[in-house]
Each structure stands twice: as C-alpha cells, then as structure tokens.
Amino acid sequence: MQRTFPLFLALGLLMAPSLNALSLNPFNWFGTASNDSINLATSENQDAAAVLLAGGKVKYEAGKLSAAKRTFKKIIKKYPTSSSTAEALTLRARVNMSKELWGKGFDDLQKVITDHANYEHFDRVIADQFDCATALMEGARGRILWVFPGFKQYGTSAKQFEQIVQNAPYSDYAPLALMNIALVADKTAEPEDAIDALDRLINYYPQSMLAPDAYYNLAQTYSDLVQGYEYDQGSTRRAISYYEDFLILFPSSNYSGEVEANLKNMENLLASSRLNLGDFYYYFRNNNTAALVFYNEAISIEPDSDAAEEARLRIQDIEAGVRPTNKASIIRKVLRAE
Q1: Three state DSSP letters for the chain
Q2: Are 238 and 262 in contact (CB under 8 A)?
Q3: CB-count exposure of residue 38 (10 Å: 0-12, 13-18, 19+)
Q4: pLDDT digits 0-9 by tens, 76-107
C-alpha cells in the first residue's frame, strides 16, 4: 500500500491540466452535455422558466390545454431544477387528468414529490393523485390510439393507492388509500391483498373513522374464505375474532345487529366442525377420549346451536357405554352389495 500512494500522486499531477480543462459540473463527467438538455437553476434559468410558466397558465386558464401542455413540457425538459417546474408538472397533470390520462397524470404528480420535495402545495398533489387512483378504481379506462376505450386498470389503481400511502403516511389520505386497496382487491378476487391492506389500516390508523369498516370488512373477508364445516377452520376463527373485536370496540355502531348475526353463524359453523371431528373419532376410530374433547368444544363454542345439542346426545351415549354403529362397516357392506 505504501508503494502505490506516490504512483497515484504522480498520475494525479500529470492529469491535472486535463481535469482543469473539463468543467467541474458533474453532468460533464460522463460525456459532453449540451446546455440545451441540462440547465442548472441559475437566476437566468429561474426567470426564463417563470416567464414560460406565466404564459402556460394564461393558456391553461383560457382553455387552450394542448398549447398549455406544450409550454409546460418545455419548462419540464429545459429547466428541470427550476422552482417553476413543480407547478408545470402539477398543471400538466391536471391537463392529463382532464383528458382521462390518469396514469400520466399520476406520474407527473409523483415526479413533483420525488424531485421537488419542497413544493408548497404538497397536499394538493396528494389530493390529485388520490383522484387519479380513484378514477381507475371506479373503472375509468384509457384510450387506445386516442379513440378506442382501453381495459380497466384495477391493478394500476391499487399500485397508485399504495404509492399514496408511502408518499403521505401521516395524512388523512393514507387510511382512505388502504381501504380502497382492499376494495380493489375485492373486485379482483384477491382476498390476501384485501386482508393485508385492512390489517395495516387497523394497526397503523386505529383512530381513523374507517377503523370500524376495516374490522367489519376483515371479518367479512375471512367469512367469505370459509368453505364449510368439513374444511380447515382457520378463516372461521379469524372471522369470529374480528367480529368479537368489532362488538367490543364499536358497541354503538349501526352494524352491531348484523355483526352479532354473522358472529353467531360463524360460531355455529365452528361448532359443527368440532361435532364433525368428534363423530369421526367416535364412529370411525372408536376413540371416545378424542371424541369427548371435540364434543365438549362444540358445546363451549356455541351452547345453543344444533351442533351443541347433538354433541350432548353423543356424550350421553358415551357415558352410558353405548357402542356406536360402525359406520365404516356399513359403508363397506353397501359397496360390496353393489
């Protein structure tokens, strides 16, 4: 290492004249760049961009949107670092939105956020982004060749709402965006995405006015995943949990009656699944110990259910020493007879 330092020093001295001949502007380190393509925010550039912006605004307010858009494009391309560029991007986004170019409008607004963090109208940018994403969520379509309606863009809408959450996590739009992600996921039959968005909403924004709806929708989403008492009851248990949380946290909600009914249905289903498992051990495995465990679970889950009543009868038989009819044997006899 000690031998290399003098060599680097000598090379540096030899190359110094060449380095001095180059501009110290870092944009020139990787090749020559013309002043037309990159302009730093000098006072002259700031003034020129401001003059163009003023002219673009006049065109925009006069309804000459195409002409205004060309002016905004010139500012964005020629003066990317000027203080006028953020406003030009915002107004071009508005033009795109007026022409139902929601994706382009959103991208212009995103560029304001990433490249012009000090823009004074940040809230307005987020609001416009939310409008773009909402339009796509509601089924707005782009145009193919500016004439033919394109496809619905639910996936793009969900990504835009996700970006809004990242852009403004402490704003009122963040929980709204998460709820809309869940609504889009419901439209596109992607329950995992809905569950993820709703879970984040209730964990990150528990005081939001949307929290009750998030709990309710989470319970409903899990309920919809339940296939029947014969299948795994993980979703049933989660639905029950969220219904119970809802009733504890929001006892005066208008949904309380509906939630109580849905909770009872889920508990009945879970009790039926326990009865079904108990019957399996009682009839097919001759294992009274395991059967009693599941029968008692059925009773404790929903004491007033039909499943609980059946479980009580089974328990009485077991305690009385009644040996069950071997249903497996019956099935075999039927199959042999055929």
Answers
A1: CCCHHHHHHHHHHHHHHHHHHCCCCHHHCCCCCCCCCCCCCCHHHHHHHHHHHHHHHHHHHCCCHHHHHHHHHHHHHHCCCCCCHHHHHHHHHHHHHHCCCHHHHHHHHHHHHHHCCCCCCHHHHHHHHHHHHHHHHCCCEEEECCCEEEEECHHHHHHHHHHHHHHCCCCCHHHHHHHHHHHHHHHCCCHHHHHHHHHHHHHHCCCCCCHHHHHHHHHHHHHHHCCCCCCCCHHHHHHHHHHHHHHHHCCCCCCHHHHHHHHHHHHHHHHHHHHHHHHHHHHHCCCHHHHHHHHHHHHHHCCCCHHHHHHHHHHHHHHCCCCCCCHHHHHHHHHHHC
A2: no
A3: middle
A4: 999 999 989 999 999 999 999 999 999 999 99
Query: What is the rounded distance in angstroms from the CA atom of residue 272 to the CA atom of residue 278?
Result: 10
Rg (CA), the chain: 33
Cα distance between residue 122 and residue 237, in whole Å: 43
Q: Are 175 and 199 in contact (CB under 8 A)?
A: no
Residues 6+ away with beta carbon under 8 Å from 241 = none
Token pair 């416009």 in the structure block, residue: 128
Q: What is the mean pLDDT of residues 14-40?
A: 41
Sign of the dihedral defined by the CA atoms of residues 24, 27, 28, 29, in that order: positive
What is the phi/psi pair of residue 141, to 5°?
A: -120, 150
- Is the distance from CB of 246 to CB of 211 less than 8 angstroms? no
pLDDT at 337: 45
140-153 pLDDT, tens digit per residue, is 866 655 555 566 88
Q: Taking the C-alpha atoms of 230, 232, 234 and 237 in order, what is their torsion angle to the nearest 10 degrees?
A: 20
